[in-house]
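Researcher: Re-running this chain for the archive, since the previous output was lost when a drive failed. Same request as before.
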Amino acid sequence: MLKFFVLLVTVGAAFAHHADGVHTATVVLTGNDDVHGTVTFTETEDHKVRVQGTITGMPAGEYGFHVHEKGDLSGGCMSTGSHFNPEKQPHGHPNDQARHVGDLGNVIFNDQKVANIDFTDSQLSLRGAHNILGRAVVLHAKADDYGRSDHPDSRTTGNAGGRVACGVIGLM
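Model: Regenerated structure tokens:
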């Protein structure tokens, strides 16, 4: 009976820890042609989110990478809405103080059509007002200009072009 009680308390503590907060989430990106990848979002002790993963299938170059407001893939990547922007800020660079929460900048693909991603973001969260769970990640067709060009789309989308691949961020 004592072993059962210890097991019950141990299992209960594990579930209570998970119920208190999410610590890791993931997204599986799928898209046009052979573009696909997996990206993991992990909370750090200093309340930031580390973003790590690999995406394959795009020619060498830089491509916009954003968290979008909706996790709706019913119309493909086009149904994911705008960049996640709960603070109603202008589009910007990931290091800008004023930016969309979903502005993650560009990912860089090498000559082997692979982008290795590893950075930490101070505005993303896996809980609270900046919670990205259930939202979509979108890889775009062009580089993000960080809202710094004269193009009409620069201040809203970074003029990053069409949506090439996407997926919904979920619990791991």
